[in-house]
Write a structure and sequence with these properties.
The complex is a heterodimer. Chain A has 18 helices and 19 strands. Chain A is of the alpha+beta class. In chain A, helix 9 runs antiparallel to helix 18 and helix 12 crosses helix 14. The N and C termini of chain B lie close together (7 Å). Classes of the chains: A alpha+beta, B mainly alpha. Chains A and B meet through helix 1, helix 2, helix 3 and helix 8 of A and helix 9, helix 12, helix 14 and helix 15 of B.
Chain lengths: 466, 419
């Protein structure tokens, strides 16, 4: 009896200890299987940088194979397009980390990749001292044209393939030379005009009148107006308490329908529509077009700032209708809005990395265009698109017109606290081989129709003579 | 005979050592190092001689234990060669000394056995050993548990854990009748007279003292665990477990509010991402290691475990997790589970209670120590620094480990050869 007891107690203790040991083992399985990837890419984890220092970093190429970033034989990182493509390539430095494609595709460029890491030690056999090349959807010629079209003004240009979401150009000014960032770090960081900020993805601006296509779409969807309704624009919309919304240049549009209101960018009509919609329907419309969401991956962006729609007063509601008040958007979100009308109501997920190619030419990863949101019916999208075509044909956006190309767009002139108005132009163009969408902002420069729309024209022309 | 002379099992650790050092040599080709070769050869040859000697001396003893421990040591050695090359030869030397001590323990097992009768002397020596560093000790790595003799640094707690296992096995075996016969009832607890449980209370108190004064949280936890598990194995009394838990909770709460270093450890465990570049740097880097390793590991010498401070001692398991991945981790952990299982098998086959408890106690020391440090570096439990038996760098830990292994091997010998 006594003997059996001590055996039992020893066995009980054994089972208990083996039990807690098994729990520990399961916990480690969880860490190394489920959490492994998140831990491996954590920005505080310097292993990627350390591994990168041991290999000849791969090149960043544009869609035609032109180099945007290459490593010279002595290990120096060169950027042939310098500041013009800085918003795309980003920079990399041991002490300053990495941004842009240098950051988002760092593992691939240094010869490591998710696909590789799943192979474990076998990957060491396949890995060479040469990193992979990353081929982008960017067209360096268009990129350069857009960069030069902005001139020395502050602003941003983004051009998408509306049908796939492929980013053709992404420009932010003022810019910086990626090869020189580490040396100029303190200066670049502290400058008041924020050259390190990628304005396409993280710049937040009031959209001004470029939001009107969305409001028009919402008004028709919610049935609070029809194409036939006639609005009477007296040049001023009384909001009570002495506040009014006026049309620019003191214009009076008289009796107009929705289409004419959009073509002439009539503030009175859109202020009226926004008040009819009210907070909750406006919120529904902004959420439908993806304005409550941000992007991730290489296009990681800020989400637009939406006001608290449930607490909007009458005046602020009307202001939302003309893209003012507390509404702030990113250029990429506006380009995606423009693409939805050009692409039958579907917004494709924007992407820049088309392929990852090993030094021996094997394609490790090929991008698959995917739908981001279905925001509209094809009929209504093409209706709004038709309105926007009129804007370029004989409305406020005529300086974006290109002979023999169907261009649709919407201008915007956004009041802001920083000074003169921001000039906006968003829209789309039907090129022979693809449908493109774009958003352009020129900070504190004045009218969208005269400052931003001509840049769209230059971008379209640069795409035509490839 | 149940156990054969498994000398072939030693080919595995020998192979690991040769391949591991080979990989490292190739990596730094053409700058080859040769100074470690005699030591390496000595370790491999000695390991075969030891196995041969032990099997001759104690026919029928467990022939798996030594090769298993050599497997741990060989993994530890190549990791140390890769992480801290300057410590490779010292660790080879410690392994040689360890194997020698192992032989001595096996050879003189019959002479050591009578020591167990002087249980209170064992207990007193143990206390003395633990108190020594508090008086004469030096603080290394935040713990005041080192004695420094010229070029040598000794961790007395590594050796006192052998004494405590010997003391407890002998004390508990002699007094288990008294300890299990309840003389008084207190609420639902059945407790023997105070003078019988006094030695147990003393051990708990000592653990607390280490916890608080020497800041050696790992050893404190280990001692406390050994005392609880061995007491339960001897008495089967849940009252002791309850009492210990109350004591443990009270002591933990008490020291949490009283001592800043305990609070810091606890805060790091709960919120490592609050200060990932400061106090939680080690544990965060360790987690990155496991993450970087994933299932397959980066491959030997292809990871970057060097980001973890003290990677060759307390955090060597993180380096294994990075370079050998989950597979390596599971292999090592299974190894410790097998070592524990074999100890329990040996315990159950022993003829007397005292020997049963001694064998099981040795097994528990290895297993609990491995558990505490593996749980610490993976953030399963708050980090408390103890060595990973036979793998971490360290002479005290290596030698004391081989003493326990020697006791275990000696106990595994079938007295009447019927098995």
């Amino acid at each position: 009896m006594r003997r059996r007891n001590i055996h039992t107690w020893i066995l009980q203790t054994t089972v208990f200890l083996l039990g807690i040991f098994a729990c520990l083992m399961l916990y480690i399985v969880y860490i190394q299987v489920v959490e492994a990837n998140a831990l491996a890419v954590n920005p505080l984890n310097h292993r990627g940088t350390a591994a990168a220092a041991e290999v000849h970093r791969g090149a960043i190429l544009d869609a035609q194979g032109r180099s945007l970033a290459v490593t010279s034989p002595n290990g120096e990182r060169k950027y042939p397009y310098a500041a013009a493509a800085a918003a795309v390539t980003g920079y990399i430095g041991e002490k300053i980390g990495a941004t842009g494609i240098e950051g988002a595709a760092s593992r691939e460029l240094s010869g490591d990749s998710e696909e590789f890491s799943r192979l474990g030690p076998i990957a060491q056999l396949l890995r060479s001292s040469q990193g992979n090349d990353v081929r982008l959807t960017i067209n360096a010629k268009v990129q350069k044209a857009a960069y030069e079209a902005l001139g020395n003004r502050r602003g941003a240009v983004v051009v998408l393939d509306a049908g796939t979401g492929a980013v053709l150009a992404m420009v932010s000014r003022p810019s910086f030379d990626p090869a020189d960032v580490e040396a100029q770090w303190e200066d670049l960081r502290q400058r008041a005009d924020s050259p390190l900020l990628n304005r396409v993805l993280y710049g937040l601006y009031p959209p001004g009148s470029t939001i009107k296509p969305l409001i028009a779409d919402a008004a028709l969807t919610e049935g609070i107006t029809t194409q036939q309704e006639i609005f009477n624009c007296t040049g001023k919309l009384d909001l009570g308490n002495g506040y009014t919304i006026a049309d620019s240049h003191g214009e009076v549009h008289g009796r107009i329908n929705l289409k004419q209101a959009l073509v002439e960018s009539c503030n009175v009509t859109f202020g009226t529509l926004a008040m009819r919609l009210g907070g909750s329907k406006l919120q529904k419309a902004f959420e439908r077009f993806g304005f409550a969401k941000s992007l991730d991956g290489e296009m990681a962006s800020a989400a637009p700032h939406l006001p608290d729609f449930s607490r909007l007063g009458k005046g602020d509601t009307a202001q939302i209708g003309i893209g003012q008040s507390k509404l702030l958007v990113t250029p990429i979100s506006m380009a995606m809005l423009a693409s939805s009308f050009a692409n039958h109501g579907v917004i494709m997920r924007p992407y820049m990395i088309d392929e990852v190619v090993t030094p021996s030419g094997t394609v490790l990863r090929k991008a698959q265009p995917s739908q981001w949101l279905k925001v509209d019916t094809p009929e209504q999208a093409s209706l709004i698109d038709g309105f926007m075509e009129q804007v370029v044909e004989h409305g406020t956006g005529t300086s974006a017109a290109v002979r023999n190309i169907r261009v649709a767009g919407k201008t915007g002139t956004a009041e802001n606290a920083a000074g003169a108005d921001h000039a906006w132009f968003i829209g789309s163009a039907a090129l022979p081989n693809r449908q493109i969408a774009f958003a352009i902002i020129v900070e504190n420069s004045g009218f969208g129709g005269t400052e931003a729309a001509p840049i769209a024209r230059k971008v379209i022309l640069s795409l035509l003579d490839i | 005979m149940m156990y054969k002379a498994n000398w072939r099992l030693l080919l595995l650790p020998a192979g690991i050592l040769l391949l591991g050092t080979g990989v490292l040599e190739l990596k730094q080709y053409p700058h080859l190092q040769t100074d470690f070769l005699p030591w390496l050869a000595a370790v491999i040859i000695t390991s075969f001689l030891v196995q041969f000697f032990v099997q001759r001396r104690l026919p029928g003893c467990d022939g798996l234990l030594f090769p298993l421990v050599m497997f741990f040591s060989s993994i530890g050695l190549i990791m140390i060669a890769r992480l801290k090359p300057v410590l490779f030869i010292p660790q080879l030397r410690w392994l040689l000394i360890g194997m020698l001590v192992f032989c001595l323990v096996v050879f003189f097992a019959e002479q050591i056995r009578p020591w167990l009768h002087y249980q209170y002397l064992l207990g007193l020596t143990c206390i003395l050993l633990l108190l020594l560093p508090l008086v004469l000790g030096t603080e290394i790595g935040g713990s005041r548990n080192w004695l420094v003799f010229g070029p040598f640094q000794v961790q007395p707690s590594e050796f006192s854990k052998i004494l405590i296992v010997m003391f407890l096995s002998s004390y508990l075996a002699d007094h288990r009748n008294l300890l299990t016969l309840p003389s008084r009832k207190f609420l639902f607890l059945e407790l023997p007279p105070l003078r019988f449980i006094a030695p147990l209370l003393l051990i708990w108190g000592m653990a607390l003292l280490m916890f608080v004064v020497a800041k050696d949280l790992g050893s404190a936890l280990l001692f406390f665990g050994i005392a609880i598990f061995m007491t339960y194995m001897a008495t089967g009394s849940k009252s002791y477990i309850f009492l210990a838990m109350v004591f443990f909770s009270a002591a933990s709460t008490f020291s949490y509010f009283l001592f800043a270093h305990v609070r810091v450890r606890f805060a790091i465990w709960l919120h490592p991402w609050a200060d990932p570049n400061g106090q939680a740097y080690q544990i965060v880097q360790s987690l990155f290691s496991f993450g970087a390793g994933g299932v397959w590991g980066t491959g030997f010498a292809h990871g970057h475990p060097g980001f973890i401070p003290e990677v060759h001692t307390d955090f060597i398991f993180s380096a294994i997790g990075e370079e050998f991945g989950l597979l390596g981790v599971i292999l090592i952990m299974t190894g410790y589970a097998i070592l524990f299982y074999r100890s329990i098998r040996i315990a159950l086959d022993c003829p007397t209670d005292q020997q049963k408890l001694l064998a099981a106690g040795c097994g528990i020391v290895f297993f609990l120590q491995a558990f505490i440090i593996i749980a610490g570096v993976t953030k399963f439990l708050p980090l408390t620094g103890v060595t990973l038996p036979f793998i971490s760098y360290g002479g005290s830990s290596m030698v004391s480990g081989f003493i326990l292994l020697g006791l275990l091997t000696a106990l595994s010998k079938k007295e009447n050869g019927h098995a």
